[in-house]
Amino acid sequence: MANPVVIDYYSDVLCVWAWIAQRRNEELNDKLLGKIEWRYHYLDIFGDACNKIPNQWQDKSGFTGFSNHIQKAAIPYPDAPVNTELWKSVRPHSSANPHLVLKAVALTLGANVSIDLALLFRQAFFIDGKDISHLNVLLGIIEKAGYKADGVKQSIDDGRAMAALMADYQQAKLLSLKGSPTYIIDNGRQVLYGNVGYRVLLANIEERLKTPVNEASWC
């Protein structure tokens, strides 16, 4: 069996487009079972959400305008419901805390658990309308999922999780990534970002699966 295609997946947990992409990622897993290796990373889109949104949307009704925007963005995607209170009464200050906790989870509980919890964090925000910028909310989700949070807290306390998160943020800047989500396929052979359709993603991945790594370039 050929080696799996590596996808370095960069996203911000508060990004509606990454939420919409969730179902596509699940379909890719179902279609290409065992042929994809996901590496989850995070980038800073809503690191300063409490200032970014009112500043960028000051001529479009601020938080209310942004809330209406994400509601409309999600309408064509029934698998990505959006709570009507997001960015109205529910206004996370930053996506940095959920990112930090997810890096801590990866370090202490494993990468696969971190991927699973990233989905639970997104569901808590987009469906349940919880402010996931609060550490106690995040740790509560971890414990409700059946995991102990002691090791997670320790890796935050000793700086390991922060170092891992800063590595993600710095790499995203180094790569000049343009948005969330971004798919970097096979060590940069393809880079796709934003609201990328399922068929486009599938075609790019399948092309990498059938193309030998040592095939000569036509360029």
UniProtKB/TrEMBL annotation:
SUPFAM superfamilies: Thioredoxin-like (SSF52833). It holds the Pfam family DSBA. Residues 6-202 form the DSBA-like thioredoxin domain. Coiled coil: none annotated. One of its GO terms (molecular function) is oxidoreductase activity. It comes from the Bacteria. PANTHER family: GLUTATHIONE S-TRANSFERASE KAPPA (PTHR13887), THIOREDOXIN SUPERFAMILY PROTEIN (PTHR13887:SF41). This is DSBA oxidoreductase.
